[in-house]
Amino acid sequence: MKILLMYLFESTICVSALYSIYWFFLKRDTFFQMNRFYLLSMVLFSFLIPLMPFHWTPTGPSASMLILLEPALITPAKVEQSMLKQSWHKKACRPSLNMNGSTSGSSIVSI
Fold first, then answer.
1. What is the per-residue pLDDT for 49?
2. Alpha carbon 34 to its chain's center
3. Residues 6, 47: one domain?
4. If we measure between CA atoms, which residue out of 8, 41, 48 comes closest to residue 22?
5. What are the average pLDDT values for consecutive 10-residue runs of the chain, which has 111 residues?
6. Are 107 and 95 in contact (CB under 8 A)?
7. Is 17 part of a structural domain of the chain?
8. What pLDDT is attached to residue 60?
9. 101 dihedral zone (left: phi>0; alpha: psi -120 to 50; beta)
10. What is the pLDDT of residue 74?
C-alpha cells in the first residue's frame, strides 16, 4: 500500500511538472496536432518516469558537515543583565533634540 501511494505521489508530481510546461509554453500554440501529441505523451511519461529507479545521495562538503553548539544556560540573573544592557544601549543611542529641533551629535554614543 505504501509503495502504491508513493508511486501515485511521484506520478502526480510528474503530471504537474509536465502540464505546467504545457501551460506556460504550448497553451497558445496553434499546432493542435503537436499539442495533442504532447498531452498524450505527457500522460504516458507520467506513468513511466516513477517506475525508473532514481537514487540521490548528497555529496560534497555539506553532506558530511556536523555543527555542534555548546548548551546555553539561561538564568534570571543573565536575563536581567541582558535587559539592563539593552535599556542602556537604547538610551545611549537615542539622539536628543536641541531647542531648534535638530539633533546634536554629542549624545550619540557608538558601541
1. 92
2. 37
3. yes
4. 41
5. 92 95 89 91 93 78 70 85 72 56 51 50
6. yes
7. yes
8. 63
9. left
10. 84
CB-CB contact of 5 with 33 (8 Å): no
Written as one letter, the residue type at 43 is: V
Q: How far is CA 63 from CA 6, 10, 59, 67, in A?
A: 25, 25, 5, 12
The Cα 91–Cα 20 span in angstroms is 55
CA 2 centroid distance within chain? 28
User: Which pLDDT belongs to residue 100?
Assistant: 56
In sequence order, what DSSP letters do the residues of the chain get, joined into one string?
A: -HHHHHHHHHHHHHHHHHHHHIIIIITT-S-HHHHHHHHHHHHHHHHHGGGS-------STTTT-----------HHHHHHHHHHHHHHHHHHSPPB-TTSPBPGGG----
Distance CA 13, CA 17 (A): 6
Residue-range definition of the domain harbouring residue 89: 76-107
> What is the rounded CA–CA span in Å between residue 102 and residue 96?
8
46 with 82, same domain: the answer is: no
